[in-house]
Amino acid sequence: MHHFVVSVNATDNVSTYALDTLRSGWYMNFTTTLNAPRPNGIEYLPVIRVCPTGISTGDQRTRCFPDTISESDVTDWVTSIPGTHWFIGNEPDRPDHLLTGQDATEPALYAQHYHDLYQIIKAADPTASVLAGSIVQPTEVRIKYLDLILAAYREQYGAPMPVDGWSIHNYVLNERSCDHFSVYECWGADIPPGVSDISGLVIDAQQNDDFSLFVAQIERFRAWMAQNGYRNTPLFLSEFGVLMPEGIGFDPDFTPARVNTFMNKTFDYLRSKTDAAVGYPADGNRLVQRFSWYSTTDNNFNGRLFEPDTKQLTAIGTNFANYVAPIALEADFYPIRLSTQPTIPMSSGDPISVTLQADIANSGNTLTAYDVRVQFYQGDPEDGGVQIGSDQIVSLAGCGDTQTASVIWETAPVGVTPIYVKVSPVNPATAPESSEAGANNVSMYSLSVGTETTYLPLIDR
């Protein structure tokens, strides 16, 4: 299990709802709120809205960068919440005439806003994490929108877009251009700004809870991440659910029982689905690292977990609480890669000094950080291996958190040497690592120290 999360409306105060009954680990409110409430220690993740293309500031429901959010505003925010994740934009791929208040940003402009905000955030807090995307749904036509963003970024700045993680919404909505189809035909998500297609995913409203389409979109996006060099970054599903209201004439209707069936199937899938080719290695190759059901109280759409007037759980909220209640918290610590400095160690024939660096991950399901002991060995630690350097201690939360531990080996020998990296909780009594998870606590890598360098000819034309 990963942390279960509820998205809340910008006007809601999460302190007035019993989020502890949902075991929620984090929440967002589609903007940045200083000193945001954190009942029961829940994590708050802010969103910096980006100013859309062709819309005046007065049409925005919330402030946006750079028109009404300045560089100094961002710096102040970032320094007040160090080490957090920052979402850049909210549904920038949704055209303005569908829903006022979405970010409706042309690809080149999103690339520019993202670049500027990334630089500001990292300058203010190098430990911050910057997440791109938050598109409505990762369909083929919206992948085109992201491709245009990546191309625009490279063209404008001469380098790939730096991304610490991606965020998506994953609704199942119709995609037809409202510039070419009637309002009855273009319901849903429309076509992203800057994309020339007039149709994308064309569906009936009854497919709003189509589980097979939900799955296909998640797997499409993870494959896209891997193809573009982002496999080793986390994916946050920051909004999903069933939007079609109950009681307006759908047949069959979108009843709480129907919504709960979709919720349970998606939760099962998101908790367990892995892919050795495109999944996130630091999280056991799971596809999604965090996910957030929509919504807490929004009664304009289906799926709300609480009634906004009584603050009581709905039938859907009760299902959510019942689903998460029996799931135990777990940690799973393991090494995912070993690197060296220098990258290619060379010697004249004598032992040399090499820095060994191991990336350590925790693919457990809790945001609580645990102290983990990292040990490097020459040879198998269970069969006479000799420890290299001293124990290193790192702190790791779950859902694919990673940290790097390193030691200096002053006497690395020439040739190929098996290096073992062993990780274990400093306090096993408080770190809930199961015996099954603990089976991957030790990994072996081969360190090669050479004595000759071969230079290959370069043919240019």
Topology at a glance:
Elements: E1 4-6, E2 26-27, E3 43-44, E4 47-48, H1 71-80, E5 85-88, H2 107-124, E6 129-135, H3 140-157, E7 165-169, H4 211-227, E8 235-240, H5 256-272, E9 290-293, H6 315-324, E10 333-341, E11 352-362, E12 370-378, E13 386-396, E14 401-412, E15 415-425, H7 435-438, E16 442-449
Parallel strand pairs: 1-9, 2-3, 4-5, 5-6, 6-7, 7-8, 8-9
Antiparallel strand pairs: 10-11, 11-14, 12-13, 12-15, 15-16
Helix pairs in contact: 1-2, 2-3, 5-6
Question: What does this entry look like structurally?
Answer:
With 461 residues, the protein is an alpha/beta fold. The radius of gyration is 24 Å and the shape is globular. α1 crosses α2, α2 (107-124) crosses α3 (140-157) and α5 (256-272) runs parallel beside α6. It is built from seven helices and 16 strands. Helix content is 20%, strand content 23%. The protein has helices spanning 71-80, 107-124, 140-157, 211-227, 256-272, 315-324, 435-438; strands spanning 4-6, 26-27, 43-44, 47-48, 85-88, 129-135, 165-169, 235-240, 290-293, 333-341, 352-362, 370-378, 386-396, 401-412, 415-425, 442-449.
